[in-house]
């Protein structure tokens, strides 16, 4: 088992915002963490990679390939991040450094974890840009984030997360700010990369229709608690929890609007 989360509880300012969350992501598996805004899904992801906000207190257990990681020293977490676990955030424009070229940012984890330098590092940045289907990778690595489109910036963020070939990718709402066409391209990219490299994926979203395109199993959160879990086809056909039923109605309405819009065009 790649990732095992058991009884994860997170408190901020005396308020319990994640309450006893448990789930597992198997080797090569694709699992979704879904819920409405404020359900605790992003905080759960941040706890896994040791990036909880200052003042947050976590308890329970997070095991990565059998090793307990909750409570690790920051240096140990830094070695884990990027090397074994990669994370992609929702808004790449804020996640990327505006004053550094995207090539330098793609290559940063390689420089740190693999000690690569000089021409070899530049060639690696080009290769990683090409791997996520960025156009003209030799030219694009010289650009800055503001010179790229939203979809291109998200591909840069994915390249950064995957440069050191981690065994688990956590994708936290990676398509929310993108239009439907660009969103589809990013989802195709994630499906292809995880399948080709037998990498595990924890995909976080509030959109059940998006989740259905990338994950086989899902865990539904509401107010910091797991209210339902199971295979995605079952959640789509027979949701049990009220919040899952609401997410399904939202997904159905979104799909209907998209089809109506396409028909009018």
UniProtKB/TrEMBL annotation:
Domain ABC transporter: 3-248
Keywords carried by this UniProt record: ATP-binding, Cell membrane, Membrane, Nucleotide-binding, Transport
Protein species of origin: Microbacterium schleiferi
Similarity comment: Belongs to the ABC transporter superfamily.
Protein topology in the membrane: Peripheral membrane protein
Pfam family, one: ABC_tran
Protein name: ABC transporter ATP-binding protein
Gene Ontology MF terms in the entry: ATP binding
InterPro entries cross-referenced by the UniProt entry: AAA+_ATPase, ABC_Ni/Peptide_Import, ABC_transporter-like_ATP-bd, ABC_transporter-like_CS, P-loop_NTPase
The organism's taxonomic lineage, starting at the top: Bacteria, Bacillati, Actinomycetota, Actinomycetes, Micrococcales
Intracellular or extracellular location(s): Cell membrane
CDD domains: ABC_NikE_OppD_transporters
